[in-house]
Structures are given as structure tokens and as C-alpha cells.
Amino acid sequence: MKLLVIKIETSHEVEDALTVFAQDNLKALGTEARKRSDFEQAGWLHDSTVVEMDDIKDLPEDMQFMAYFDEEADREQLIKEFTGKLTELKTYGLATGAGKITTSYIADQDWNTAWQKYYHVIDFSRHLAIVPEWEDYQPAFKDQQLIKLDPGLAFGTGNHKTTQLAMMGLERAMVKPMTVVDVGTGSGILAIAAAKLGATDILATDISDESMTAAQQNAALNDLTNIRVQKTSLLANVDGKFDIIVANILAEILLDLIPQMDAHLNDGGQIIFSGIDYLQLPKIEKALDENGFKIDLTMKQGRWIGLAITRKEA
Ligand SMILES: C[S@@+](CC[C@H](N)C(=O)[O-])C[C@H]1O[C@@H](n2cnc3c(N)ncnc32)[C@H](O)[C@@H]1O
């Protein structure tokens, strides 16, 4: 099988927006963003980037964004969609760079290898590190928990800021063994993080088949038997209540989740949201307020907002 690759010469300011647009709206099989500055600084920055100068000689001044699609995908339509998105992002005052779009076809196998080359250990916190299945990692602290991961085609390598905000929220919330529902689990990364932080039982939901497969395989990769998966939209048809509801999904979808939360949250329960573009925050605040919830903590990374939420006092 071959893959269609769409390459865009653009700017780091639109990395997150293009990633979400490609994955959620255009159903890209995968995305990559190669920033010249990341590569140039990788030698001395303590991050998960590798540098091979040969790989970057053709990079644009700021960032190259790449999205991978099935070879049958409509190339012209995708170019049109990305062109439209770049124009829209520009109206928000964001730099979109040259905006030059080129396309090519590569063998599926090449994509897998290329992608693995740029995905490395994320030494996330005192308690958690994300370790790709094919990497070896020795934690500095014996009790740092490792999340072993092969995200496959599902969202959730741990590199995305929204995933990291949700993980920070989980670390803060998990002060004793608790039950958790991870809504929109993708690769299962947050469900696994919850298990590693000491959750007792975890339910992971998603609407996509790829996510169901990836989450199950990743739970097994981590020898976890306390993660169940359920293919459903948000919390529809989900039984029971949980101590923690965590969801890293776009704001428009979180708005549908908010009215479902009360029925699935235990007394004293906590909710963690991520995936909210800061421009969408007022809508989320209003919906939370109208549904009896309050925000206890707001976290921010770039344009992305994460929230820790509880019920308003009775
Ligand atoms: C941004 S990804 C988050 C993946 C992972 N939890 C993470 O934090 O990296 C959002 C996920 O939500 C899923 N999703 C989108 N709409 C959904 C819905 N209505 N119900 C359940 N899952 C949904 C997508 O398939 C995708 O896997």
C-alpha cells in the first residue's frame, strides 16, 4: 500500500491547528511537524527530538508540516482543504509562512519507519515517562513509571501539548487509588497513565476502530489488565460512575460531553479537560457553569488550555 503525503511549508504558529484539522477533520492517517529550530537546537535542548543534519537540509525556514493519507484520498480536494484552512488561520492573525503545498506518494512501510525515527522517549515528569515500544530507557528514579507505547494509527504519542496537559491534570488529581474514564482514548495513553499513577479500574472510550485496537494493544504492552475499552461516542451507553473523567478532545465535542458528566461522576469526583483552543474557552466556561461545574485550575501550553473541574458546592 502507498500513502499520499501532503507537505506544507508553513509556520510553527499553526502547528497545533493543522495537526488537529488534519487528524480530526480530514482523517489523516498521521501527521508530522518538522521545525528547523527544533532540529538546530536538539543537540542541547533536553527534549525528545533527534537531529540528523541530512534530514533538514530541505526544511523550510520555519516549519514543514506533513500529513499522510490513504493513496485513494482525493489529492486535489485535500490541497483545497489545507489552502482554505491556512487562509482561515491567517485571518486569526497567525503566521502561516509561505503556505506552499506539495504532494508525493511513498510506500506505507517508509512512512512507518520515518515516523518512528522522530518519536523518542519523553521524560515527562518525576512520575511518568513515555517510552516508544522500540526504545530502551533507564529512569533516573526507580519508581518513575514507564508508559510503553506504539500508537499505530491512533492519536496520542505523548508529544502533543494537549496530551501533556491532560497528563499533568491526572497526576494532580490522583491522590489515592481511583476509578477513571478516559473519553476519546486514542492510543490509550491517558488510560495507561492513569493506571500507572495508581487508578484501580479504567474505562477507555473512543469512536474510532483504530483507537480501540491501539488502546487494547498498548494496555497489553504495559501488562495492564484493569483497562476496559468501549467503542462509543463520549459517554453514551456507558454504565456506572467514576472518580475521574478525563477527556482530551476539541472544544466543540467537549460541549456535548458536559451535559453527560453529572450522571457519570462520583461524589467528590474530578474532571480533566484538554484540547481546548484558548479562543473556545468562554464557551466551555459557560457550559460548565450551566451544568453545575466549576473550574479549579486552568493550565496553558501555547494556544491549548487544560482544565481541572469539580462540581459546584451544593
Ligand atoms: C485529541 S485525540 C486524544 C487522544 C489521547 N487521549 C491523547 O490525549 O493523546 C481525541 C480522540 O477523541 C476521539 N473522539 C473524537 N470524537 C469522539 C467522540 N464523540 N466520542 C469518543 N471519542 C471521540 C478521536 O477518535 C481521538 O482518538
Folded structure, characterized:
The chain has helices spanning 15-25, 36-41, 53-56, 75-91, 108-117, 161-173, 189-196, 209-221, 251-261, 281-290; strands at 2-10, 30-35, 63-70, 100-107, 128-132, 145-149, 180-183, 202-206, 227-231, 242-248, 265-277, 293-301, 304-311. The protein is an alpha/beta fold and 314 residues long. Helix content is 33%, strand content 29%. Helix 7 (189-196) links the parallel strand 7 (180-183) and strand 8 (202-206). It has 2 domains: 2-117, 2-Layer Sandwich (Alpha-Beta Plaits); 160-311, Rossmann fold (3-Layer(aba) Sandwich). 38% of the residues are buried. Strands 9-8-7-10-11-13-12 form a 7-stranded mixed sheet, with helices on both faces. Strands 2-3-1-4 form a 4-stranded antiparallel sheet. It has a two-stranded parallel sheet with strand order 5-6. Residues 154-156, 160, 162-163, 166, 183-186, 189-190, 205-208, 211, 233-234, 248-249, 253, 275 line the site of S-adenosylmethionine (SAM).
Structure described in brief:
The protein is an alpha/beta fold and 314 residues long. 33% of the residues lie in helices and 29% in strands.
Characteristic key phrases:
Alpha-Beta Plaits; seven-stranded mixed β-sheet; binds S-adenosylmethionine; 2 domains; alpha/beta; globular
Helix/strand structural class: alpha/beta
The global form is: globular
Question: How many alpha or pi helices?
Answer: 10
Number of strands: 13
Write the element-wise H/E pattern from the N-terminal end onward.
EHEHHEHEHEEHEHEHEEHEHEE
Enter the CATH topology name of the largest domain: Rossmann fold
Oligomer: single chain
Bound molecules: S-adenosylmethionine
Strand order of the largest sheet: 9-8-7-10-11-13-12
| Helix content, binned percent | 25-40%
Terminal residue distance: 57 Å
Strand content: 25-35%
Mean pLDDT: 88
- Second-tier CATH architecture of the largest domain: 3-Layer(aba) Sandwich
